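Ubiquitin-like domain-containing protein
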Amino acid sequence: MKCTQCKQEKLSKEFPPSTITERCQHISSNCLRCLITQLKDQNKTLRKCPECPAILTPQEFKALELAWDKAPFKIDVNSIGKIQPIIPDNGNTTTGEFHVVMLNGQKTTLLLEENKTIIALRSNIFKKLQVNQAKQKLIYNGEELQDTVERRPGTLADYKIGPGCHIQLIVVLYNITRAEALKSLVFDLHWGYPANGSQDYLDGSCLLYAGDTFWRKYDYASVYYPSFPHMKHSGDMMDNAKKEGHQRITAKLDQLPQEVTQLYFVLSSWKSPTIGHFKTPSFKLYDEAQPDKELCTYTIQQAANSQAVILCCVSRAGEGMWQVIQVGKFSAGNANDYDPIEISIGECALHG
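Structure:
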C-alpha cells in the first residue's frame, strides 16, 4: 500500500489495522509513522484524525503510540525485489539474512547459508509457512526463480540474491487447464448482519484487469453489461427476517476477451468500519460443475480489522489456462470508493 502522506510504498502491516477511533468511518490511508507524527504535532487536548473530523481520546492516542513502539515490521520496503550486493565468503558462498514477502505483506526471514539452491529455498518456505512447494511462485527483480538453470540446480547466486534482498512469494492455489474446460466460475458470499441487527452489506466485488489497466468491475451496482453477457453479479439478496445477506458472481472464463488477464475477488464492508462487524461471513470460489472442489480457501476472520480484503486473483497463465493465486491483502476502500482497493491491487503487480 502507498501512504497518502509520505507517498512511500509500505507493507499493509505498517498501517493501523482498524479505524484509529470509534468515531472514524474509514480505515486510515496514513501509515503508522506518519499518523503518529501528525498527531504529535497537534494540540494535546484536541487531537483529530488527519482524514476526518473525528476527535481521538488520550487513551486512543496512547494505543496508537504503543502499536508503533512495538511494531516489528520497520523495514525498508523500497528494497523489495531490487538487486543487493552479494557478500562473498571463501569465494563461492554467501552468509546473512534475506527475506521472503507474501502478497499480503507477511515477511519471513531466512539464512543464505541454509538456502543455497532454489529447491532448498522452497523446502524451507514449506517448513516455515506451510506453503506446498508446487504452489510456490518465487519472483526476484521481475524474474521467476527456476529450480534448474542450464541443466544444473538453480542457486540464489544465479539471480544475484544476497544479504538484505526480498523475494516475492506468490501462492498459486490452483491451475485451471484447457483440459478441465471450466465452464462457469462461481463466487458465492454469505454474511449475517452486524451485532446491532441493522441491515448492512458485505460486498463481494470482482475487478477485471487487462495487464496493469483496470478494465471493468462487477458489484452490487454493476451487475451486468449487455455487451458482455458471460459474467454477472446477482446484486444484493437480503433476508431481513433471518438478518442474512447473499451475493453471487458467475464468470465464464473461456468466454472472456483475450485482453482480460486478471480477475480480483474482493470483500469490503459498506457501512460498518471493518469486516469483523459481520456475523459468520463465508465465501466459496468453485467450478459450477464441481461445487465440492473449492478453488480458494481464506479465513475471512483474518481480515476482521480491515475495511476490505483482496481475497485472490484468477490470473491468465496461457491460452485457455488460468491460475488461482492467493492474495489476502488488506485494504481501505469499499464498493463506494474503489480507489484504495485499486492502489492495493497495483501493489500486487500480478499483471501479465
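Residues 74-93 have pLDDT under 50 and may be disordered.
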